[in-house]
Structure formats: structure tokens, C-alpha cells
């Protein structure tokens, strides 16, 4: 029986954002809504719960158990929320009131109960989400880890036993192992209660692993839907197919990561055409003439493409030996690096070598000290002990300032967050020119050359960062780092917050650069699939210690350490 | 535990502050032209013997450090000297004036909170609407009127032209006092209320964008709980800081207001004492001002401690 | 709204620069026989008790009424921005020392000290203006510092440091533009606070020489004339309020525009 | 409408407001208008002045002058302090003697510099011996020889008259409450030896802000005040239900010019200035018709006391810009000069100096006004620091010119702390002052005319105007005020009609 039925949902703000979305969720069913950032997934979810931000309006229909919610009075919505439909949001760090305890969050969501019974009920609900320790109920959010917070939030969301749970990227902010735990927990609860779940994610692998049915969203509309396995196995829309091709694999090193060219258009601009036509490899004139309907291929299987999708050639394993072995000697040598933050050990004696032209991956969960390691090498943090040597030069920060003179020509960095990696006040051109001026005078690259290197049009020089997409920003950041022609480029999770397609683009770019410029890479990531694609050697960091290191293939295929195995187990299978 | 360390740290800081403040004012007053002789002698010719006697009595010929040390020694024992102007002990003079200023400041604070907080919330709720624009503009204008001008306008409008309120004095009975202090309190509260409205509005708007508020609504929590448990409580933190600063600012604000409304409070006392070179009184008042600011800051910290668990557990320092 | 705002400030600026030329009478010219009189065709806003033309005095006074607050705002902003940037960027002992001093300064009953300083030392506006700038600065330093602290941890700032740029360049070319919304808004708030506070000092009889055509002083000198010519005191109050409102509003607007413009 | 009328009390209760707060009920520390007004209602002086300013009996029923430099007073019989104790000659003698004691640091000390000895001779007699004859002694005594119980004064050498100690007198009223904040309350002394006061109770507040004060009177919250200025007459006379009384005051306002150095040393410059200042306009501005232009350097009542109605004409410099310019041309500064002039903020001097500056600008003398807080200005003046052109307005207590003239033109007063701000003086002048001090009859007139003529010719001072005293009273009360009646609280009585 259909629990949630969304028909022709549109959300409009200053522009059209969500354009005619149809969705339905039945009891006991998990439906996945996938799509790239900005495609309108969150707004769809919030429209369903009647919680659109101020200034946005929804039309169409949203019925829950036969009751129309769209345009309903706030009074009715309040009675429906929590008891029939619950919403779980992306960021566990922002979702809980910092001033209330975990228990209070659950308790206030419960229906009226006597005091003592209420306390017992709170503990029972916490136990349901895997929190057995009763003292957690008395703790405040800031005293809990991200995973714990997400569990508490889940318990609070489920406190009134809703029939439908909308989970908007509930695990994106968590690291791989925790992500895995929370998803499994979600599945367990869903099964136990027979709830309907609408799971919103941008991670195709998660969707396919967890969901009965999957809808793929693009530029505010659904372009394909069907059973998870069906969509994964035989995508019926070129967009889905492109996304799948861009997905890095944890088991094989792909010769080429296929990115979908271009970027997602605004829903507003493509109302009357196929939204994907501009980026589609098999587009026909017809695609630009009318909006293709969501046609039924087979029962439960729909696509918004007029044609059959040509299968993409996918290279079979074993694909490629790692890139040519490093020439030259050791470029970076880190010995027994140690760093504490107020008694908390961030690095507990880490040693590593990077040869000239070599690519080394560093993996580990959140808080394992990856960024700290990078910052110590870059001279942005002063280690408490150990040595950092670059091309035979002791550049240990804090030792003697003068020694680092010139270190910036040896090592540069690309940071994780594309939203802050560029100075919003400067144009791309100014940024690149300034960076190039820091390099040696001979062979100094021009702004145009740098933009060309990362595959951006020269006209971008006059743009400011806010006019760039996330992937473009990371490419500018890479260009900026390369401007001084460093021997080593440290990449601190440069793709962690990018969509798969953009990620593929950036990874491919880095591989090319390494190949063509001979720049060595120290690639930091928590994503094992990414490290498989880019690193010759990999080391696994766990609580500030290196627990395993070796050839990437060896580490991933035959993990020796328990932690590495746990990391591997939490990666959803690549379809 | 956190409370104790906080108290200890604050106490030490307060001592340093008061020390610096007292040395500063003492030095300033000592360096300024004219001395207490003029006050003591009035604007009349005087004899040389009288002047010598006064200089001896007030140790005016001692070097500055000696005078400061003497003053400090007495002050530590709670003796702030005798007012040159009225010959009463300074502590008595201040104690005599304190009730007026305290009631005025308290009344004004009450008005500020009672008016400012709801108005700020309402403005935030109706963001962009006519009501919001009205409130925002009114707050802006109130903020821009100099407090003394507001006093004069209120005095003319409500006390003289309409005759609803008395023109001067602080009243004797409690009820009388409320009637007498209403206009001064409004004059004093005006700019502060405007600040609180702005702050409250900003805090509430900031809050409205927070995930945890959306999550609370998504769980179908009752409206009352969302307003009190979420909006008000979380917005209280930034507002609290401003409120505390305002309480301290009351001190100076009351100076203008007391002057205009003919109230014999601490502000009027300070103005008078400065004019009369009544150094012991000025000195004690400045110290009192410093002590009040310190105390208010401490209160804010304690309030943070009570409201914000992160501070309580030393996770962040306010 | 925006039009009104700009008009008010533009008129104020014109009056500040060219007020003395625009004035229909010599602002100091007395007509003791006329004394305080209400508005008339000859004197649009009437005269004060020395028979001086109120309108002319308002126009001539715009300069001093606005110049000093602008000076305070500029001084405060320049000082607090550079010191705040330095403390927030450099950290270490510079920061620790500066923060200790600022803690102390902020805990001082500022206005009280100001009145005592200026009241006791006497002397003129110079002291008042200087004292006010000194008073406003610590709070602003703190704000700039905390913003700097937040910005310096962002990737673009770390990238700038990684590129080996000189600290001054990182601070002023990279960090400063991103603090602009707050710095600009704060500067306008300082202007407003100085405008209102200096008028308050004049009200207490501290500051400018008698007879100077200054708005704050005019309120003080003419408030006894409310029965004879209310405009002599009301007009300057209205002007102060109008300019202060417009400046605050402009600050709010600029803050919004600038932070939107810089939004990432 | 009004919130409160007359404090709502009975018709024999007066709510009075002073423009400044009284600070002491002891004249030794509270020799100022607000304080003395209360002292005069509570304390009796040995002698008093009659309507013409002639010394008359008060606590002293009579007195004799055994020789020109000594007086012997006989106390009135049966006078009691309000605490019930009897007034003794010892009390009276001690009350004067304490002003001579430097340890008391009395503000009245300078009034009694000629007193050598004060002693009680017998139960009801007090003898005062002076260093030299002083015709002003009795007039001064009428102001400052207030009698308090010796016991009380001795017990509180430092804080007699303070709010904590208060005072005890024999006067028409007694102090019920004396607070610097909530005001003073006086009640009728039913055992008063003189005529019974018309008022039963007087509540005295202080309102320092002139406008607030006016509004308080206007709203009826206050029945009467002396805290107004004649120049504000226009604002006060219009108040409904309020009558403003004006009566001549023993005062004079003038400009002093420091003749010691600089342009002002040149007598032509001084003449030029005197010609240029529009005294008529200034008088009108500052007195609003309740006063008059000053023609000589003495308060009008003092002139009258010496000359009666036949005041001689002294040399004068009438308003005449041409003459002013001509004088300036004769000086070393034909093109004028610039002078920095300090003034006290918030007082009359600000207004007067602005007007003077405007007048002098017309002949090329530029005055740069330099604001000073009141106390700093006073300190600077008294220290004779950088004197130039200054505005001075003085009110005197006695009808005798000898109270004024030495202050103005003796070399002794030209030192710091003296009142001779012009620094004008000479040995010859000092000698003439001395002879004048003890002269009587026609000789006195001649000598005074000589002195005043010299001042008028040399112009160290430019006399400006006299101002009347002003008292505003609610129509529920009335009073008959006089120049020499310092105890005006006792003069107020309920209006017969109300
Ligand atoms: N409050 C709002 N007002 C106006 N536009 C908005 C608002 N919130 C989101 N948008 C716009 O709507 C579009 C879709 O946003 P939405 O948050 O639904 O995307 P999403 O698919 O959830 O992406 P992500 O994976 O980044 O969360 C985006 O282009 C965004 O800029
Ligand atoms: N400036 C700092 N002050 C205090 N603690 C810090 C600081 N920087 C890092 N840490 C702590 O050091 C540990 C390692 O942090 P680091 O940022 O290196 O982890 P990471 O592996 O990069 O994690 P993530 O994947 O979340 O980026 C964490 O526990 C973190 O809380
Ligand atoms: Mg989203
Ligand atoms: Mg990291």
C-alpha cells in the first residue's frame, strides 16, 4: 500500500528549483533518491515534510496515507510531523540543540508519559539505536561523537513511531566506518518496524546497497527510477550511466575515470528540453525540442530518455599496472613526527617517505591525524617532535624559520573544502599570478598556461570564486599549487565534498599532471576507492599511528591489519 | 569546579583592574589644575593661613606616591575618605545616592527586557514584513537620538505638556518612586531597548536557519516548546552579553538622564563632584563603576555557565 | 528607502563641506535686540537668544558635528583593524599581551573615564576625540581579531601561507578584504556612537568653546528656549538623529551587500 | 494639568527649590547662596541689616563702640537654642572666634581679617577688638557672625553643618531634615524670640538644571525658587499661576582687563574696548530689563549708601565705534590684535564673552574663546594665570564700598588668590584706600569720588551692568523682598487670597 505519494511536485523560489517530481514510498519499503549536489533532493524532502525554508513555495500534491499535506494548515502538519513522517538531516553536528541533553531530545519528542516511565522509555529508545550506555542520555551534544549524535537524532526522530522516515543524507558528514554502522542501523530499524524510508543520498553505492527502489534526480526532476539492482546493472538514462562510469572502484585501478562533461543546469533553464541534453554523448536534435516524459520501460522501471542507452565500454580488470615506478631518490622524508593538542595525541610518531614523482596515499578515518600530518609538512603546524626533510633539506617547522626559506617551491597543497579554498575577494587571475610570482623566475607559467593546465578556459581569469562550481574551484586550487612548479603536491581530501562526476574529473586531472609534470603526490583521503585510483603506495593511519603501509594493491587486496579490514568492509560494493 | 576557577580568575582580574583604575584616576586628578582648596574656600578671597591649614589637612604637599599609598591603605580598609564638598564620609554620600540610581537602572533594565525581547522576536518572525520594518526603523531612530535629547523631549511631552508625570525628583514611597522614575527610565532604556531589539532579531533570524530548529519542527514539537526551549533559550546567549554590557552602560547613561530629570543619583553626583574637584568622591565613583562592570561581567559568565553546557564543561570559553 | 538614505547622507556631507557658504547669514552675527524669535521669512528656523540665525548655525555647524565623528571612526577603524589583524594572525605573545590589555580596557567603565578625563583635564575637543577613539578601539580589536582567527584557519589563507607570502601580504591582501563587511559596518557604528557621544559631552558642557556653531552644543545652549523658539534646540536634535539613523542603516545595508558579495 | 500641586500640603507649607544643592549648614564651609539661604532661616546673626542696609539689633539687643576699633555687644535676654539650651555670651563669642582659627579653614575667614580678639565679658556681653577701625565690620557681622552653641561647634570642628551633624540655632526655623539628596525640611521654631514666621513648614529641594527647575515651578511641583536669572525673565514671567519678583541686588558685572602686560597694558586699547562694547545691548540681553547699565565700579546699593540719590557723574566711554577705532589707532596696535580669553562653560560668562567678542571684532580685536570647566576656570583665575579680558559678576553682602574697593584696586589683592584681576594698583592708591577706610562724612564722599574717577579714566575695569535678584513664587504665596534681607525664606507668607 502506498504510504507517501508525491505527484508533480514543484518548488519555486526566485527561480524554479524542483520541477515536477513524482515519487512514492510504500510501507516497509526503502526508496532512494540520488543525484548530484544542487539537484533539489533536500528541497523535495523538506517540501514533503512541509518544512520549506521561507521564501520557497511548493505546488503539486503530497499525500501521506491518503491525506493531502501540501497547502495544509500548520496545525495539521504539526500533528502529522513526528507521528507520521519524520525527517532526519544531514549534519549531525547541527541537528541537535547544543543546550539540551541527548535524553531531553528524545524525551521531548515522546508522547505524554509519567515521569518515571518516560525515563525508562528514553533509555529503551536509545538502546534501539544502539546506545546501550544509559549515561549518554545525560550528555550534551558536544560531548558526543558524530555517529552518536546521529543515533540520538534518529532516536528522537523515531520517538513517535512515524510511518515514514525521510533521511536526508544522514551519513555524509560521517567517516566511512561510522557511515556504514549508521546505514546498517537504519536498515535494521526499518525492517524491525516495517517503516517506509525515503533515503536521500548522492552516493550511488549506498543507494544501490540499501534501497529497494531508486529514483535518480537531475536538475530538479526525476530522470530514471526502478529497482536498485536494475538501475545499477542496466542504466536506462545516459546520466545514470555517466555517474556509474565516474564511480571509482575499490577493487581495480581504472585506466581512465570517465567524468560527465559540463555541469548541472538550473531547472529553470531546461524546463522544455531534456535537462541532460547539453552534456549527453548521444543527444539527438529531438532532445532539445521537447521535454521527454518519464516513460515506463517495464513495470516499475521508468526513464526520461527517448532512446536506449548505449552501454559504456568498461575496461575489465586487471586494468593497469601502477604508473611508471618513481625515478630519482627520496623527495620527502618524515621521521617520527609527533604532535599533541592539549594532551590529545594527533600524531604519535609517524614516519614516511615519498620518492620523486611517486604518488603516496594516506588513508584513515576522521580524526586519525591525516590533516595534521599534512600541515606539519607544509609548515602550517609546528610538530612537537620528529623531523621533516624535503629534498635533503631539513624543513622541520619551528626549528629555525630560515630553513623553510624556499620550501614553498618544493611542496604545495590542495585543501579539502572547495568553498574556502579560494579567497572570495580575489579574481582567479590575480590569485594565479600572485602564486606564480612566488615561484622561480625562469619558466614561470602564465595565468593562461595554468588555466589551460587544469582544463579551464582562459576567460575564467577574470572570475571570482563565487562564480565557480566546486569542481572548478578545486581545479583553480590545483593550478595555484602548481604555479610554483613544486616537486611535491599534497592533496588533503581534495574531492571529499565533490560529486562523483566532478571527483572523477579532478582525479583524472591529478593523474595527468603527475604523469606529465612528474610531480610527486601525497594524497590524503578516507575513500579507499579513490586511493586505489591514484596511489602507488598507501599507508593506513589510525589514531595518529601508521598501522599498515605498502603497495596500494597489496594493502587493499590483502589487508594485514584489522583496522584496514574494517575500513574495507564498510565500503559499499561498487555496482 | 569550572565555577571556582572562573571566580578565582575573575577576582584576580578584578583586583588588577581596580588597581589600575584607581592609580589612573588618582594620578589624573592629582595632575589636573586646581585643587580642593578652591572648593573648600568657596569663590571668596581667603587668607594665607587658611590655605596652609587646608593643604596640611589634605596632605596636598606630599609627593604623589605617598598620597596614593595613603589613599590606597585607607580604601583597602573600606575608608574612602570624606567628601570635600559635603564633609560626609564618601561611603555615606554614595550610599545615600545609590537607591535612586539603582532603582533607575533596574527599572530601565526591566523595560529593556520586557519591551526589547518580544519586539525583537516579533520582528524576526515577521521578517521583511511591515511590522518588521516598522520595528527595525523605530529601533534605529531610537538608537540615534542622543539620550539627553530623549530626556528633554520626554520631559516636555509627557511631564510638561501632558502633565502625566512629575517633572523632577525621585519620589518617597515605592509607588511614588515608580511614577517619578518612569520617564527617566524610559529615557535611559530607549537606546538599550533598541540595541536589544536589533540583537534579538539577529539572533532569532540566525537561529531560524539552524538545522536543530528545523529538526525540532520536523519532530512535531509543540509551538510553545519550540519558542521557549529552542528559540528563546538559544537566542538568549548572544542577547545576554549585550544585556550585560547595557547594564554597565546604564551607569553612564544615567548621568545624562539624572542631570535632565533633576535626580540626585550617582550620575549627578559624579558630574557635581567633577565640577567641585571633590576628589575622594570622584575616585570612589570611578572605582564603583569599575566594580560594577566587573560584577556584571561575572554575572554574565555565571549566566553562560548556567545556560550553556559547553561553557559549563569547559569545552569552550565564552 | 535607499534613496532617502543616500539623500540624507549626501546632504549632510554637502553641508559639512560647504555649510559655511550656504548659510544665509554669518553664523556668528548677533542681533541682541531681536533675541530668540520663532521662524520667520528672514530666519527660517528662527534665532537663538543672541539673535543668531539658527539655520546658518546648523549649516555652519555641520562641519564640526560630522568631522570629529568621522575622525573618530577612521582612527578607531584603522587602529582596531591593524591591531586586530596582527593579534589574530600572529597569535603568540603579541596576541596574549594585547588580549590582556584589552580585557582590562573593556572592563573599564569607559564613558565614565572619558567624562572624568575630559571633565577634569578640561581642554577641548581634541582630548574628547582622542579619548573616544581610545575607548572604542578595544572592542573593535576583539571583533577583528576573532574574525581574523576564523579566516586564518580557512583553506585560502593556509594556501597563501603555503605559497610563502609575507605575513603583511597575507593579512592585508588576503584576510582584510574578507573582514570588510564587519570593518565597514563597525566604522559606521563608531561614527554614530561618536556623533551621539560628542553631542552628549557638549550637553554636559565639556568640549567645544561656547558659541561654536556645533549641533550638540546648540542643543545645550538653546534648550532653555523651547518656549520662545523650539527649533533652536529641536532642529539640531533632529539632524543628529537623522544622520545617525541614516549612517546606521547604511552600515546595516553595506554589511549585507558586502557579505553577500563575498559569499562563497 | 499637573501631576501634583504644591506638594499637596497645607497652605502654610512652602516647597522651595534652589538652583544648587546646599552643602553645609555652617557658613564656615557653606558660604554659598543655597546654603546661606537655609542658614539664615535657622541661625541668627548678632546684628542684622535694616531695609536701608543699616546695622540693626538681632541677637545683640544693643552695642557700643568704646573706641573706633572695638565693639561691645549686649545679648538679647531669654533667647534659647532650639535644643532648649540658653544662648550665652560664650556661645556668641566662640561662634565668631572659630572663623579666625586656621584649623577650621572657614570660608568666612577673609571677612574677619581685621578682628584681633573676641571675648565674652560677663554673662551677656561680648567684646570684639579689631586691629584697626573697620567701618564694614557690623555689616559683615550681619552676614557671617551666625551664632551656634559652642558645645556643638567644638564637638564637631570638622563637620559642623554636615548632613550627619546638622546645626542648632536660635532662628525662626529649625532643621527637621537635612539631606543632600532628598532635600531639607525646616519647621517653624515656636519658641522663636522674634515675630512668629508665617510658614509652618518649608521643604527645600535642589534642582540643578535650570530648565527642569522652571518646569517644576510651572507644573506646580515647586512653589518658589531663587534659582533663576534675571536674563531669563521672559521665560518666567509668562508662567501661569506664578509671580516673579525682581528687586535690586548688591551686585555688579564688569569686564576686567589685566593691565600688566600685552596690548591691554596700553590705556588706549582699554579705552577702545570700552568704547566698542555695546553695554546697552548687553545689559538688555543679560537682565531683560531687570537691572541696568553700570556707570561706576561699585554695586548700585553701595553708591546709594554713600551718595544717597546724588551720585556724581564719572567719566564714561559711551558706545562709539569711531572713537574706539581712533583710540586703537593711537595705541601700539592700530590694526588690532588677537587675544585668547578663557571662560567658564555653562555660565553667563559664555554668553557675555560671545557678545563682547562680536563687538570687539568690529574694531579688529579678535577674541578666541577658550572653554574651561567651572572649577578649572576658577582655579586659573584665582591663580592669576594668564589673565586677559574676563567677565566677572560679583554680589556683595554689605552696603559698604570698603568691602569692594580693596579687592579691586589694592596691590595686595593683585596677588594670586586676590580679586584684583586687573593687577591695577600702586602704593599711592593703597594709601588712599587706607584713608578712605577710616574716613567719614563728606571726606568719605570726596575720596570715593576720587578713586572711582581714577578707575573710570584708567579703565582697568569696564563696568557693565547691575542685575536684579529674582524670586519666582506660586500665586499661593507672596513676599516682600529687599536688597538687605538675606533671610528671604522667612519673608514668604501665604497669599491672603488663596
Ligand atoms: N532556501 C533556499 N532559497 C533559495 N534557493 C535554495 C534554497 N535552498 C536551496 N536552494 C537552491 O535549490 C537548489 C536545490 O537545493 P537542494 O538543497 O535541494 O539540493 P540537494 O540536491 O539537496 O543538494 P546537496 O547534495 O548539495 O544537498 C540549489 O541550487 C540551491 O541553491
Ligand atoms: N588545531 C587543533 N586544535 C586541537 N585539536 C586539533 C587541532 N587540529 C586537529 N586536532 C585534533 O587532532 C586530531 C587529528 O586531527 P586531523 O584534522 O589531523 O584529522 P584528520 O584525519 O584530518 O580528520 P578528518 O578526516 O576529519 O579531516 C583530531 O582528534 C582533532 O580533533
Ligand atoms: Mg541536500
Ligand atoms: Mg582532515
From TrEMBL, chain A:
Chief site of localization: membrane
Keyword Membrane: yes
Keyword entries, A-Z: ATP-binding, Cell membrane, Membrane, Nucleotide-binding, Transport
Any one GO molecular-function label of the UniProt entry: ATP binding
Transmembrane spans: none
InterPro entries given in the database record: AAA+_ATPase (IPR003593), ABC_Ni/Peptide_Import (IPR050388), ABC_transporter-like_ATP-bd (IPR003439), ABC_transporter-like_CS (IPR017871), Oligopep_ABC_C (IPR013563), P-loop_NTPase (IPR027417)
CDD domains, sorted: ABC_NikE_OppD_transporters
Domain ABC transporter: 1-244, 332-568
Localization, UniProt: Cell membrane
Membrane topology category: Peripheral membrane protein
Family label: Belongs to the ABC transporter superfamily.
Name assigned to this protein: Dipeptide ABC transporter ATP-binding protein
Provenance organism: Microtetraspora malaysiensis
UniProtKB/TrEMBL annotation, chain B:
Stored SUPFAM superfamilies: MetI-like (SSF161098)
Record-annotated ABC transmembrane type-1 domain positions: 98-300
Entry similarity comment: Belongs to the binding-protein-dependent transport system permease family.
Main location: membrane
Top-level taxonomic group: Bacteria
Topological type in the membrane: Multi-pass membrane protein
InterPro entries for the chain: BPD_transp_1_N (IPR045621), MetI-like (IPR000515), MetI-like_sf (IPR035906)
Compartments it resides in: Cell membrane
Alphabetical list of Gene3D superfamilies matching this protein: MetI-like (1.10.3720.10)
Identification of the protein by name: ABC transporter permease
Keywords: Cell membrane, Membrane, Transmembrane, Transmembrane helix, Transport
Listed transmembrane segments: 104-125, 137-165, 177-197, 227-249, 285-307
From TrEMBL, chain C:
Chief localization: membrane
Assigned keywords, A-Z: Cell membrane, Membrane, Transmembrane, Transmembrane helix, Transport
Superkingdom, taxonomy of origin: Bacteria
UniProt-annotated location(s): Cell membrane
Membrane topology type: Multi-pass membrane protein
Membrane-traversing stretches: 66-89, 101-121, 183-208, 228-250
Domain (ABC transmembrane type-1) ranges: 66-251
PANTHER family recorded: OLIGOPEPTIDE TRANSPORT SYSTEM PERMEASE PROTEIN APPC (PTHR43386), PEPTIDE ABC TRANSPORTER PERMEASE PROTEIN (PTHR43386:SF25)
Family under the similarity heading: Belongs to the binding-protein-dependent transport system permease family.
Name of this protein: ABC transporter permease
